[in-house]
Input
Amino acid sequence: MKASVRQYARSLFELVADKSEAEAKALIAKFIIFLHRRQDLNKAEAIIEELDRLYEIQNGEIKAELISARPLAKEAKDKIAEYLAKRLGGGEVKLSDRLSPELLGGFVLRYNGMVIDGSLQNNLRKFKKQLLTN
Output
């Protein structure tokens, strides 16, 4: 049975947790060989992303991406960061933002593998689905 990216990342994260740099490097090298033998080396990039996420959680950091149709005011970004910090139990929120005109309006917030879609496009899609089911 193949292991998931999260399982691999959590295992490696726990393996190197209290190791010296030299010990961690040796374990990582063995882990890469292990991935190769299991023909899962193609998951390496996703495992690294998951390791990064686990590290951020352990250190109280929250990386989030805010995608909006138009630039948002600093106050709005601050409120979103504050909401996210409360929702995840505190920690420093590092919010990067990106514009995506195809959203039409609203925003999409991505963090820790989660998505909050408050875009106009998504709301219209839900409304259409609701009309078609009634």
